[in-house]
Specification:
The protein is α+β, with helices and mostly antiparallel strands. The protein has 2 helices and 6 strands. Helix 1 runs antiparallel to helix 2. The chain is elongated.
Length: 108
């Protein structure tokens, strides 16, 4: 699971596809971390934006690909500025492809 800046999505999709990732789920989210939001001026009035737009990616890959996927996300999504995102690596107990009934590694 990873959160990234929205403008990095297409570049990251291409990089992940290039290393063999066959699919991912993408969700538009809002959140805050170290940057704690920011202020903007709209029609002459200043207001606080407490939640910043982000993209949440969810990928399930084999153990053998996990480190390469993390490294690809990290290097591709990095701008060097606050708000670049986070990566969380979780164990998946079971996977099933609904259409075929394939399970675990065959379902990926």
């Amino acid at each position: 699971m990873a959160t990234i800046k929205p403008f990095k999505l297409e570049e990251l999709r291409e990089a992940l596809t290039a290393i063999g990732v066959r699919g991912m789920m993408v969700t538009e989210i809002k959140g805050f971390g170290s940057q704690s939001g920011h202020t903007e001026i709209y029609r002459g009035a200043e207001y606080a934006v407490n939640f910043v737009p982000k993209i949440k990616l969810e990928l399930v890959v084999s153990d053998s690909m996990a480190e390469q996927v993390v490294e690809t996300i990290c290097t591709t999504a990095r701008t060097g500025k606050i708000g670049d995102g986070k990566i969380f690596v979780l164990d998946v107990e079971q996977a099933m492809r609904v259409r075929t009934g394939e399970t675990d590694a065959d379902a990926l």
